[in-house]
Amino acid sequence: MRIRLVFLAVTVAALAPAQEFRASISGLVTDASGAAVANAAVVAANVATNITITTRTGAEGRYVLAQVPSGSYTVSCEAAGFKKTLRSGVILDVGDRVTINIALELGTQTESVTVTAEVAAIDTDHSVLSQLMDNKSLSELPLNGRQVFMLAQLSNGTIFTQQQFGASGFSGTRAWDTNGSLTMQGGAVTTNQFALDGASINAGTGEWKFAPLVDGIQEFKVSTPSSDASLGLSGGGVMNMTMKSGTNQFHGTASEYIRNNIFDAVATQTNQSPIRATQHQWNDFSGLVTGPIRRNKLFFSGWYEGFRERVPFPVTQTVPSELERAGDFSDTRNASGQLIVIYDPMSTVASGSGFARTPFTGNKIPGSLQSPISQNIMQFFPHSNAPGNPYTRVNNWVSSPNIGKYGYNAWYSKFDYVWNQNQRTTGSVSQDWGFEYRASNGIQNSPAKSGNDPLRRINYGSSLDHVWTVNSTTVVDIRAAWQRYINYSAQEVADVFDGSSLGWKVPIGSSPTIHFPQLAYSGYLTMGTGGYTANRIFWPDQAYSLSGTVSKTLGKHFLKVGTQVSDTRPNRYTSGWTYGNFAFDGGFTRRDPQTSDSTSGNSIASFLLGAVASGNTDVNASSAARFHTYSLYVQDDLKLTSRLSLNLGLRWDLQTPITERFDRMVIGFDPTSKYALGNSTATGGLLFAGPGHRTSWDAKKTGFQPRLGVAYLIKPRLVMRAAYGITYVPLGGGTGGLVTVRQNGYSRSTSYVATSGGGVNSYIPNLPGNSTWTNPFPAGVLQPYGNSLGVKTTLGTGVTYDSPDYTVPYVHQFSFGFEYELPWWKTTLEASYVGSRTRHLTISQNMDAISLQNRLQCFADTTYCTKSVTNPFAGAPELVGTSLYNATMSNNQAMLPYPQFTGVTQASLAIGNQTGDLLEIRANKRVSHGLMANVSYTFGKIIMTRGFREAQYTTPYRTLADYDRAHHVGLTLQYDLPFGKGKRWLSGASGVVEKVVGGWEYNTSLEYMTGTPTGRPDAFNVANPALPSGQQTYNRWFNTCTLLANGQRANCASPDEPIVWVQMTNSYQLRTYDDRFPNLRNPWATQVNMSMFKNFKITERTSFQFRAEAFNAFNTPIYQGPDTGLTSNSFGRVTIAQQNFPRSMQFAFRLSF
User: Fold this and answer.
1) pTM (2 decimals)?
2) What is the pLDDT of residues 693-717, one digit of tens each?
3) How far is it, in rounded angstroms, from Cα 739 to Cα 730?
4) Cα(989)–Cα(444) distance, rounded to whole angstroms?
5) Which domains does the chain have, with CATH numbers?
């Protein structure tokens, strides 16, 4: 029976890896002489729920209470012939492994001894590095956006890598948003695990898909999985949250958080702009209730959070003037005030080696020549409302405040049921629904608007967990979970637009539903579907979970054996330009169509003539992908002596290659296949999934991951820890993940054929046989051909395939350090070295590049590559509509290994790596005298493989990671001010005095980092670019003195300043330099958040709190790195454009009971 039990428990499965969130209590029970006491009963009783968990000591006097929910406990121990011992005030946090040794006194069991003593502040039995935040810290620290995961960046070794905030904030800083842009302990970005009550909320990726209400979280722990085999599928760290459970008393909160622009500072660039964004409004409101349904038996907790935000997105753009709208360009001028002459494209004639055209009389386009469609569309252009440039009228239209809207609703419900002392079940259900709407082109309430219209994110989740205490030494835990995350955008029904009313032959594009197409005008406002609404998306991801763990105490051993199986289904549909995408420039109205100049040609003039420069419409496939994960692990936490503990583990993960439900995917490239093409034979083509071979790479079943940890108590209060382990990166996470489905052939684009025929006809629009503005796709929309063409699929274009040698990345993670508990102020100090070696990260390689010998020849003589040669594939029907259909091609194209393609890229080449070396120092002061604080300092370096400097190189290069931070400091401080009743000062206050001076709290957080590495210019570096001390300014961040290819000096501070940069002679010169400076950093500034709370006691169990919070309290701006464009007018200059949030104030009202 026992064998069957264990077999059943370890063969249950889970979609996403379960992470252990419950705590355990272990220890040694002895008598007064130190001898072990066997068969003693040890009971942990939850103070809030009266739920008890029982075990007995073994022959060596050791015990383990496993799978204990976090909370406050009283631990009792009794044995025949001894007094009953009670240990109160035992606080268990998420994932804690607490040691409580009990010394029994001789006596009768009717006698008792009560001990009220704190559990040791340092863990002497385990080697995993971790940092905990309890509910007080989570709910009271100033948190911009109330996104709990953002607090992780205040811990050691954790950096949020996103830098530019944009008008709506960082992606991921609001609870409605999703992200995973965190590097932890030197690991790759977006490869971490996020878990809620032990169940993953990653949906198979390295990102969180659900952000719970801060008030609903009991605890939040950031851990390093190096020596714990139960933690897996993480490239850096694990963030585990325990949600609040119900107790025998009802508790709850109701909160409202408010922001308004009148309390906010403005970004630096806004200060410098005539447009001042206003009307920023923010409301975050929530409610939480926990309590009993049946006391001591059935408990519940539930919360709701709503979010509404109105954000200004002021837009400054250029629209046609009143004259231009009518076809009159008599006052259209360039930046020098010169008239821009408009030429008639129908008058194109050959002229010497070029072409010539006749200008329109008076620089006016006659109405009879104007396209009725363009005249009708002109009504959708906004009218000018600003003067703009006195000559060009650039920026003559302002849309302000151009409000964007965000909304979010989320709810979560949890129940805990105690069947009996040995059986208990926990379940949860959650949902969140969010949307964002932005008119990125500033046009509101019109079919011509562009932007998120809207973008929606919906998440559903549920979990069920059952714990069975089989006997005093064996506990079984079985958990199931399900998650569905949908990310999609779609235009509203009200925006349906009938193009036939403007004169188009409909449908304009490939979609039967008509919306306004995207119309892009060189130098003017773009109208129509853009952003997510042009490339409409529907991405429903689904994940199922089921896992099992058996915990067993055997003498000095605490064993855990577990298994996990996952089923992840990432589905994708991105529509492309289904409504049509058309671009206009000045080419058809220039003097010479082959030569650009500043005094002729205009995109609006071309538009009025119906002269489209380019366009297309798409028919894109959807994908229904799927992969599985199978995991097994065994963990042995061994207490060798009272001072020495070992953590030994072995884990095995198998992540299967991704498949597509209907085999609509590319699985590789055959470099040897030969086939006739035109008048020649071509080699190489794509391979497709089919029966017998459905994946692009083969599963490797060698994913064994040893885990080893040591904890040694050197002396009381001082512990040494060392750990080593291998962990695999989640298949759907970050750099190295591979869940992309390549679908060449299953999607197809139809191009607008503006001109054809060669000679003069190449520059005259709307000729018979070509596309016309009235009928953009006269031959119909081309339909995808799937895999029917085999290796001839998508000839004449660039193709990408995944490497057949792909290997799931893994990480060697190791640490060594000490922790010391100071004898005063309840403070611990910790110092550790943490190392990370990530292997098999993915990079891409160009497989279709000219040889090194040919490139060197082209470097010596560029015409060798650019000259035209006979195209051996000319006229091949497989190449219709591509540049390779023509009679000639460049010699560069002819010398490619696969000249029938414009590019062949091997993606997911698993030869990249990343190295992280970190020194981490931490001081943590637990609560005493109303004060608690934590300071974390990290000094380190992260180096990664970036790719190949040139296609001709065979070895990828290594450089600093773009998110490397040499120094990182995080500080949190919470202080109940010592004034008022029961406090140090004015303790006797009452009445009005107590109400004024009592109940104040102060909280702050601080983050300082050095800037990210500055990018290098695309030039040879021949001297140190760092400027002498005191000379670095925003206007000259580094030495910009350059020797140009023509031999002239540029950007030098003085005639005798040494040359630092040498421009490449031509584009064929081989690069030998990295893309980041090793010793130069981008700007950064310390960020400080502060809050003050005032608490009012209403009744014994009810209180009210007012909060005032300031984010970036000192309004310190962070600017982007310097311009590294070698020929740019601002080369080396830092653009004064603030990337971080300017100071904002938040006020809140909170009722608690």
Assistant:
1) 0.88
2) 999 999 999 999 999 999 999 999 9
3) 10
4) 58
5) 2-116 (2.60.40.1120), 967-987+997-1152 (no CATH)
